[in-house]
Amino acid sequence: MADRSPSLTRNPFTAEEKPAVSVAVEHLSKSFGALQVLKDVSFAVEPGEIFVLMGPSGSGKSVLLKHIVGLELPTAGRVMVDSHDASSERTREQIRMALVFQAGALFNSLSVYDNLALYLREHQVANEGGIREKVMRALQILSLENAASKLPAELSGGMKKRVAIARALVMEPQLMLYDEPTSELDPVMGATISEIIATLKDEFHVTTIVVSHDRDLALSIADRVGILMNGQLIHVSPPAALRDPHDPRIDDFLNPQVDLKNPRFKKLEI
What we know:
The chain folds into 2 domains: 14-96 and 177-270, Rossmann fold, CATH 3.40.50; 103-171, no CATH class. The chain contains 8 helices and 10 strands. It has helices spanning 61-68, 89-94, 112-122, 128-141, 157-169, 187-204, 215-221, 248-254, and strands spanning 23-32, 35-45, 50-54, 76-81, 84-85, 97-100, 175-179, 207-211, 224-229, 232-237. Helix 3 packs across helix 4 (128-141) and helix 6 packs parallel to helix 7. This is ABC transporter related.
């Protein structure tokens, strides 16, 4: 089955309107032993906003994302989701948050259908008939209904990403977090995934935080972009401000130049 763009509709899962949530990261620091990964990071995400967090590899982006969803505990500072501590189990019970992992994190032994149904079954959200309805609607939204019986090994990289997003969608999240959603995808499928993220936000009014290296994604779908370097948040602005950054660190990151005269690039002598 070829990858194709999704056909998105109004939220089919529930008639109940769930308000989008706010996120506040307040003076967050995190250390692993002597290694300090995050250093006094503060920013806020408004309800219904798409906030894209960018930065070089190893700058702490994924660690920060895990703090927001409550998978890591701060060394100092805190993360608040709708004024509730993100690390509290009660918060995770009251506010539905879904994290789309970089590699998809699909269960290889389960079909696409069963990957989506797993959360609904474990939390006894509905009977099997209700679960089937929710799963098939999520697959339809992501144009994956014909892949329901396939195993992850039978899917392309783009389809795996879309299955991971569909699995998050069946949770009816108020907050969706994506870790490098366009990594290892070709430019066309990367653009498709970016479009899906933006459309889900518009259709379902879900607050969205994306960790990404993808400059095109950030400039095209973000309401605001944060730049994290060496564990510090050095910049937050609408994406338009990044088209001509005044900070040379940001310019070097977003617009890297390759010096072919550098000795490192000399041709190997055989």
